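The instructor's notes for this session suggest beginning with a concrete chain rather than abstract definitions. Hand out the sequence below and ask the class to guess, before any prediction is shown, which regions might be ordered.
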Amino acid sequence: PYTDLHRAGVNLRGLIRIMLFKRFESSVHAFRETLSKLHRIHTDFLKALDAGFVPAGEEAQSLLYESDEWEEADLLDALRGVSGRYELADFNADLLRQHIQQDQRLLKQMLELVEPIKPPQDAKLQTLMRWLKKPGLAKGKRLIFTQYADTARYLFENLNPKGKRDDIDVVYSGDKSRERLVGRFAPIANPWYRPQSGESELNTVIATDVLSEGLNLQDCDKVINYDLHWNPVRLIQRFGRIDRIGSEYDEIFGFNF
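After discussion, reveal the predicted structure:
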């Protein structure tokens, strides 16, 4: 188990660095949410060390990532129950604690740097809002893609403050019916859908890649990629939602941040 743990640690450094860059590239909000979560995980890891055990391994990691849903005592009991493969005596506990505390300081410093960037100071968000008012984007339907649920929620909250508009919606996982949302957004391409009483047609949809495959959204002629997926095939799939047989448009448009 210690060999596996060492190998995983070496590989994870680069993955975490890339993950942080991609989150920051997506939105300052997604970056801030990730930093906050990592800082909380480090704090809970230190509490486990102080309690006399090392919360390592996949099961412990899963618990740490969900630690905001637990009471502290219950979390430590659960972590202790899945951390039996590793003995604290086999680690340099003092050095490990120093490294965790150093990571905490770096995470806190990064949080302090981005904390002042609220929506009015978020140049990327303000650019999107400005472009959505331009003639080419102000009319008709707009499909806005992002890689992350945190960014999707952030865009929805700022493009539809307090949920006052009924012509804009967001989808980022199994949180709502894709079929219903697709039917409201593209009723011509999806004639099987029967709107419910009082249900309005959607002009703007913000989505993660849960909408990027196998759906008919060609009522729309504009895709906006708020962030660029690392896989170019995914970008092609996004455009494929509107570049489809049956489209009434001679041209479709893609806007990339």
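Then share the key points. The radius of gyration is 22 Å. The mean pLDDT is 91.
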